């Protein structure tokens, strides 16, 4: 069916398949590095405990057949290996069913991890990666033309992602409507990067322009993704550029990178040839098998049926943010930062080795890998890697209602648990764990340029309160307070 083929989207297919596969590779590596300590057999929120309380119907996962840390590492290794072959384009060189099976296996493996990941996997970009991986599975191989229906559905995904985020902002805090949101965001975002400090100190008019640019990119541009070429390519390019600015100024795991990859679904080869005088893209394909056309039509129809609730959500007064309407994380609702916090609070976890802490006791802070701690440490660049513990520490400072994992974190630090300590940036007690742990809340603000020149500090902090009074592990008992 000639109308079914999108022959001018070969570059889009290559970027979509290889780019999504690269993000799956990062996600599986992240799981191998962090899941056992966070959610493993002896983790902060043990997955076996969770699996005993939920059914496969509620949370589909291969681990319902039995969880072990070794099995988790095996799943992550298989997922990473298949993702690597997709990055290299090996399955894509075969028949159209081969990359389809590869992506669906990767999707099922990662779904099995996400569905038992509890609060540590409760991020919108987990659902986004799952939805994207499922859809690009049906882009076919190099032996068939890219299917038009899949290309169009990916545009609908980008539309939901961007327009949903824009509507969340307009319905959210007043700071988005009075154009002041980004006067605070670069300082209070979950995990600033090395550039955030410099951008924060730009003039207020610049930050107002940032907000206007964000509104334009999310509330206006997405509609043009469905326009004829080259308008759709221009709209996609604008989205890519705004996402690159977010990559440049913050750490949001793979959220911005996957948005950039997905935006290529609207960039056609003709535009690339015109702009870059490049003519090396494949333009002729064998006849597409009837079974593949039929399968793509059936899958697209299925996804469109699932689209009803996300569509209604976009225009609902109480719009849901980062919500999945089914247990397979297909056709989700997206959106982030409906409100921007004006003040940054950081929880600083400290240990003390004294038998009984007193006014003169030395308390040594634990450093995390990404989140602010030492005021003289420049915020690091970690994205697209996802530091899950650091992110939850940010939510904890905002008053997160579920702090069970933090209670277990304190116990693990008091025990000197090696897996947990590998999640931290620095272990201040390398010889033996501390006798006591406490957690205090500090108000963090960026230093001014003058303060930075004088002290070398990127942050200035002020004690605001105590989250956790000193606690210890009594010999032979549960944790006790000082």
Structure, described:
- It contains 19 helices and seven strands.
- The chain has about 475 residues and is of the alpha+beta class.
- The protein folds into two domains: about 1-315, no CATH class; about 345-480, no CATH class.
- It has a five-stranded antiparallel beta sheet. Strands 3-4 form a two-stranded antiparallel sheet.
- Helix 1 runs antiparallel to helix 12 (about 255-265), helix 4 packs antiparallel against helix 5 (about 125-135) and helix 6 crosses helix 10 (about 205-220).
- The chain is globular.
- The termini are far apart.
- The model has no long low-confidence stretch (mean pLDDT about 95).
Q: Average the pLDDT over all residues and give the rounded result.
A: 94
Helix content: 40-55%
Q: How large a portion of the residues is in β-strands, by DSSP E?
A: 5-15%
Domain count, please report it.
Answer: 2
Helix-strand topology string: HHHHHHHHHHHHHHHEEEHHHEEHEE
C-alpha Rg, in Å?
24 Å
- Across the major sheet, the strand order is 2-1-5-6-7
Described by the principal axes of the CA atoms, the overall outline is: globular
Total helical segments: 19
What structural class do the secondary elements suggest?
alpha+beta
> Cα distance, first to last residue?
75 Å
Major sheet description: 5 strands, antiparallel
Strand runs, count: 7
Task: List low-confidence stretches.
Answer: none
């Amino acid at each position: 069916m000639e109308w079914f083929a999108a022959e001018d989207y070969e570059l889009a297919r290559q970027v979509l398949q290889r780019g999504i596969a690269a993000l799956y590779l990062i996600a599986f590596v992240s799981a191998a590095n962090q899941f056992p300590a966070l959610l493993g057999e002896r983790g902060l929120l043990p997955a076996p405990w969770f699996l005993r309380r939920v059914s496969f119907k509620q949370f589909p996962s291969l681990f319902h057949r039995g969880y072990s840390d070794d099995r988790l590492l095996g799943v992550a290794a298989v997922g990473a290996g298949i993702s690597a072959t997709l990055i290299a384009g090996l399955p894509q060189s075969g028949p159209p069913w081969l990359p389809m099976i590869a992506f669906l296996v990767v999707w099922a493996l990662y779904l099995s991890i996400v569905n038992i990941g509890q609060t540590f996997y409760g991020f919108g970009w987990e659902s986004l990666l799952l939805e994207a991986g499922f859809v690009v599975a049906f882009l076919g191989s190099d032996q068939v033309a890219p299917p038009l229906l899949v290309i169009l559905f990916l545009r609908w995904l980008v539309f939901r992602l961007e327009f949903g985020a824009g509507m969340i902002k307009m319905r959210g805090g007043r700071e988005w409507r009075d154009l002041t949101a980004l006067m605070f965001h670069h300082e209070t975002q979950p995990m600033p990067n090395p550039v955030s400090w410099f951008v924060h100190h730009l003039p207020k008019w610049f930050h107002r322009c940032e907000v206007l640019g964000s509104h334009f990119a999310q509330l206006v541009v997405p509609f043009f993704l469905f326009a004829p070429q080259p308008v759709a390519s221009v709209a996609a390019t604008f989205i890519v550029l705004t996402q690159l600015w977010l990559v440049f100024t913050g750490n949001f795991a793979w959220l911005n990178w996957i948005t950039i990859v997905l935006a290529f679904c609207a960039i056609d080869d003709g535009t690339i040839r015109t702009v870059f005088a490049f003519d090396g893209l494949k333009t002729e394909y064998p006849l597409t098998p009837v079974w593949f056309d039929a399968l793509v039509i059936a899958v697209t129809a299925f996804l469109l049926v699932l689209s009803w609730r996300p569509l209604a959500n976009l225009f609902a007064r109480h719009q849901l943010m980062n919500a999945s309407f089914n247990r397979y994380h297909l056709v989700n609702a997206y959106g982030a930062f409906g409100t921007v916090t004006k003040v940054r609070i950081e929880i600083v976890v400290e240990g003390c080795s004294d038998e009984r802490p007193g006014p003169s006791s030395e308390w040594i802070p634990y450093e995390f890998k990404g989140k602010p701690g030492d005021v003289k440490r420049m915020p690091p660049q970690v994205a697209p890697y996802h530091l899950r513990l650091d992110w939850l520490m940010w939510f904890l400072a905002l008053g997160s209602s579920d702090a069970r994992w933090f209670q277990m974190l304190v116990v693990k630090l008091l025990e000197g648990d090696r897996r947990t300590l590998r999640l931290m940036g620095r272990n201040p007690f390398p010889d033996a764990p501390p006798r006591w742990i406490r957690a205090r809340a500090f108000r963090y603000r960026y230093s001014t340029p003058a303060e930075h020149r004088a002290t070398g500090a990127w942050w200035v902090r002020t004690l605001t309160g105590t989250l956790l009074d000193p606690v210890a592990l009594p010999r032979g008992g549960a944790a006790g307070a000082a």
